[in-house]
Specification:
Pdz3 Domain, 504 residues, 2-enoyl-CoA Hydratase, Chain A, domain 1, alpha+beta, six-stranded mixed beta sheet
Length: 504
């Protein structure tokens, strides 16, 4: 709407016009608020908390800057001020707090930021926004606004967690329907997320069991390695022969909805629980792949995690695909090597594509099967300490000509092995740039409940001291897979590797 100055009107008319326009404006604002209130209310929590964190990071006379120092007249014990009746409920929280301070790669930690991270998640969990149903061609309906609680300031002399316990009391006064254990777990997750490290996280009892089942080789789900640390769950790689592979899920696919429920803003670990479920039941995933939005109905199954596949290709070229680095990987790899060698293998294609990684010790053992001596990787800790991992003597394939296949689904332990083979000159990498996970996590069980935490304890470097985090490894020979290749079930990467090894 625009105002014109071409004509003059009497003061009374002007006054009436202004009143009329203000009424229209007020009505529009009310409609706008009704439509977007939920977004404003929901985002206000994050905005206020962030402003508080930023304010606390600015020098002042009332808030200590050094998190290791207690405020004047305050307690150094972070548990000071906690209601006595919550001692057992919050035992996992404080256990994780201690483990984080003992093990996290970057020290010292900002205790105030950790506290406000816990506070932020507490408020979000206490008044969850219902997930809307996605309907093609229609706007997402807005849920009912939730209360916005004030962000308390930390007074001089207050205990570290006093603002948290103040909000805890206000949450219960507002009448949250969420139980205290769930609120504690959300706070724990928020505290760990406040480190700024996406690979440091809490695993509740269900997720902890599922993650450990994968390492020993069996679980129930769709059969895909996933990354839960970003804004959305991302497929790292589908497992060979899994329901996820059967329907066509690929590395880098992003899950934006589960069973038509938008998962924007929902922690990945929570979304994962909706994806997992009983064998025989279907789950619908809405996937963003590049600019395309795709839907997949996947029937969950009992997944036996594939480890090693192998066969003899033409020209006596052996082929071994390693799908994961679990407790069985080394023994199965050795069996495959021995069998192929008994068949007269003269060269080897070692396939690490879509291998999402796994155990560090297994990675060192696997690399040692191909590298006779020297350094496999370095591990660097936040306090300046470094550990060097060297090849274990006695590898079965240390001198056979070989090529290593990698792609965007090759991550973590796969990158350790591929990086060592590339840097030592043992063989060339062929395929596409790898995922880029250059940190090391320790999975630590919590004694106070059947759950655990995953804490980044170090960053690893290749033998040439290259840091690949968020960058990945660049293959010596780049061969990309096209959309037509996938549809026609062609494998130009494997074809090229076999071609190179067959040349005299």
């Amino acid at each position: 709407m625009s105002f014109s100055s071409r004509r003059s009107v009497a003061p009374f008319v002007i006054t009436c016009l202004i009143v009329f326009l203000l009424a229209i404006l007020a009505a529009c604002l009310c409609v706008g608020v009704a439509i977007w209130a939920n977004r404003a209310e929901f985002s206000a929590i994050t905005t206020q908390i962030q402003e508080q964190i930023e304010r606390l990071s600015t020098p002042s006379q009332t808030v200590p800057l050094n998190p290791t120092e207690a405020p004047v007249n305050g307690s150094k014990d972070p548990k000071a001020g906690m209601p006595a009746e919550l001692k057992d409920t919050f035992a996992p929280f404080w256990e994780a707090w201690e483990l984080l301070h003992e093990n996290f790669v970057d020290q010292p930690l900002d205790d105030q930021a950790l506290m406000f991270g816990a506070l932020q998640n507490l408020k979000t969990a206490a008044f969850p926004v219902p997930l809307p149903t996605l309907t093609p061609g229609k706007k997402i309906p807005m849920p009912t606004p939730t209360p916005v609680l004030p962000v308390p300031t930390r007074a001089p002399g207050a205990n570290l967690f006093d603002p948290f316990w103040k909000v805890w009391a206000e949450v219960h006064e507002q009448g949250t329907q969420v139980d205290d254990v769930t609120l504690m777990r959300a706070s724990l997750d928020g505290m760990l997320a406040a480190t700024g490290d996406k690979h440091t996280s809490y695993m509740d009892p269900a997720l902890w069991k599922q993650a450990n089942d994968e390492m020993v080789g069996e679980y129930t789900g769709i059969g895909a390695w996933v990354d839960t640390t970003g804004e959305y769950i991302q497929i790292v790689s589908p497992m060979k022969g899994s329901p996820a592979e059967a329907v066509g899920l690929r590395a880098k696919d992003i899950v934006i909805a589960v069973n038509d429920k938008d998962v924007t803003g929902v922690p990945g670990d929570i979304v994962l629980q909706d994806i997992l479920g009983p064998a025989g039941e279907a789950v619908k995933l809405t996937i963003k792949r590049g600019e395309d939005i795709l839907e997949f109905n996947i029937v969950r199954a009992k997944i036996t995690v594939p480890v090693v596949e192998y066969e003899m290709k033409p020209n006596k070229i052996g082929y071994i695909a390693l799908r994961t680095f679990n407790e069985n990987s080394t023994s199965q790899l050795r069996h495959a090597l021995d069998d192929l060698k008994s068949q007269g293998m003269v060269a080897l294609v070692f396939d690490l594509r879509d291998d999402g990684g796994g155990l560090l010790n297994t990675a060192i053992e696997v690399a040692s099967e191909f590298i006779p001596n020297g350094i496999i990787m370095y591990e660097e800790y936040g306090d300046g300490r470094a550990e060097t991992y060297k090849a274990i003597k006695g590898g079965r394939a240390t001198d056979i000509p070989m090529t290593v296949l990698v792609n965007e689904g090759s991550a973590s332990a796969s990158e350790i092995v591929a990086g060592a083979i590339q840097d030592t000159g043992r063989a060339k990498l062929l395929g596409a740039t790898t995922y880029g996970k250059g940190s090391v996590q320790n999975w630590i069980p919590l004694n106070s409940e059947e759950s655990g935490v995953r804490i980044t304890i170090a960053r690893w470097l290749t033998p040439n001291r290259s840091q690949i985090n968020e960058k990945g490894l660049t293959p010596d020979v780049i061969v990309e897979m096209t959309e037509d290749d996938y549809k026609a079930e062609r494998d130009p990467q494997l074809d090229r590797a076999l071609q190179l090894l067959a040349q005299p």
